[in-house]
Amino acid sequence: MKTMNVNNQARVLNRRLTAVSIMLAASITANAAMAVSVATMNKVVLVPSLSDSVEISAHGGVDRDYLERLARDATYLFLNRTPESARYFERNLERITEPETYQEIKAALILDRQERQNTRTSQTFYPNDFFVDPSKLYVEVVGELETSNGTRIVETKRATYGLTFNKRGSMLRLASFVPVEKDQAQGTRAPVSNKDEQL
Question: What is the DSSP pairing of strand 122-133 with strand 138-149?
Answer without folding.
Answer: antiparallel
